[in-house]
Amino acid sequence: MKVVLANNLGFCKGVEKALEEAEKVCSEVEGKRKIYFYGEIVHNKLVTDAFIGKGAMIIKSPQEIKEPGIVVIRAHGIPDKDRKKLLDSGNEIVDCTCPVVLKGQRLVRESDIPVIILGYKGHSEVYSLCGSSDSDIPVISSLSDLDEILPGRYRGVVQTTFSKPLLDKLIEKGRGKGIEIELVNTICRASIVRRECVEELAEGVEAVVVVGAQHSANAKELVQTAIRKGCPAFLVENESSIPDEVFAYNIIGLTAGASTPESQYLKVKERLEIR
Known about the structure:
Blueprint: E1 2-5, H1 13-29, E2 35-38, H2 45-53, E3 57-59, E4 70-73, H3 80-88, E5 92-95, H4 99-110, E6 115-118, H5 124-130, E7 139-140, E8 152-158, H6 164-176, E9 179-184, H7 189-202, E10 207-211, H8 217-228, E11 233-236, E12 251-256, H9 262-273
Parallel strand pairs: 1-12, 2-3, 2-4, 4-5, 6-7, 6-8, 8-9, 10-11, 10-12
Helix pairs in contact: 4-5, 7-8
């Protein structure tokens, strides 16, 4: 089997920076203080397990901390109220929030008109964006969600890994319902470039394999990008999870989500090539 790598794949700059900061904390502390990670620093089990092996504890809320220590904030950010609780409890914060997510949080805080979030409900980034305001913020994930929004003028803040085709449809439908969204498009540039590379890749292969976590929004969007180009696509987490049907193809395009280490997608490449 021939495997063709996408021109741009794997860690983005935001992920690289977050992991460098987290590695620095783990190496400098080395058991001197408790180290907590607020959620998965990135959506990748291999990465998360590696930090657990270095002594980090994964928490989902400030209430889980019994002994103050150093709290590493995940790349997707956290709500303002949780940040305050962590500091008030005597914890030191190492903020690994992606700069683009920080921009989105700032836009939510500073908006002088009602805000809506265009993103995937339940995603940790969307949770942090909503938590940047004292008001309840509606989250728009599908066309039907717009039916719950009253006509008016809104500031629209977009999840960094949201689908651009879906975003365009939401804006168009909203306009038709009298919902005027003043869009601040914070879809990450790295996500856009990776999707463009998948579009190019899909034109010259029989199928595309995306290496990434099943709950990774950017990895799932790469799959959908290939499918929209008419190319079969598969999301796999590692070399052991490649479905048998993939091996029926002779030419495979390979890419990886922004949270996928190079070692992880190269193992998938090796597994594909030996069949």
